[in-house]
Amino acid sequence: MKSVKDMVAAANEVVRHAPAASLFAQHGTKGVTFVDLRDPRELDREGMIPGAFHCPRGMLEFWIDPASPYAKPQFQTGDTFIFYCASGWRSALSAQVAQDMGLANVMHITDGFSGWKNGGGPVGEKEQKKD
Questions:
Q1: Which of 54, 55, 80, 114 has a 20 to 30 A CA-CA distance from 41?
Q2: Digitized pLDDT (tens) for each residue of the chain, 131 residues in all
Q3: In what order do the strands lie in the sheet with 16-18?
Q4: Which CATH number fits domain 4-118: 3.30.2000.10, 3.40.250.10, 3.30.160.270, 3.30.200.20?
Q5: Kindly report the CA angle at 67 between 66 and 68, in degrees rounded to 5?
Q6: pTM
């Protein structure tokens, strides 16, 4: 049996990654999209990186694939995508999936949102949907 820890290590061998503090300068940069993979309850509880695109981990493949009925235009921009989760495990696996699906410029935050928050990165509230 392959452990999640082994899968994350394998993903980190094939995708770009960096700690949160080294990515602060990328925040707000044109052509860079931060992608929050956490569960909506985590966003409600802890906030998120301002301007990040929320993509629940379970929908990632469906939202990336332009042929999917669930495809999201955010993934068709050609931007650099910086994936993050709470601690860098889900984001490592997600970055690998996105790369395997053909997104050219993907990476993830190795220490996740906790590293972002603890390092002093900007944090905002989850944007509320308008009725």
A1: 80
A2: 999 999 999 999 999 999 999 999 999 999 999 999 999 999 999 999 999 999 999 999 999 999 999 999 999 999 999 999 999 999 999 999 999 999 989 999 999 999 999 999 999 887 766 54
A3: 16-18, 106-109, 80-84, 32-36, 53-54
A4: 3.40.250.10
A5: 90
A6: 0.93
Structural tokens at position 82: 């910086």
How many CB atoms neighbour CB 131 within 10 A? Answer: 3
**Tally of CA atoms within 13 A in the half-sphere of 76 that contains its CB:** 10
In this structure, the number of other CB atoms found within 10 A of the CB of residue 85 comes to 23
Token code pair at residue 71: 């495809």
Q: What single string gives the DSSP state of each residue in 30-83? A: TTEEEEE-S-HHHHHHH-B-TTPEE--GGGHHHHH-TTSTT--GGGGS--EEEE
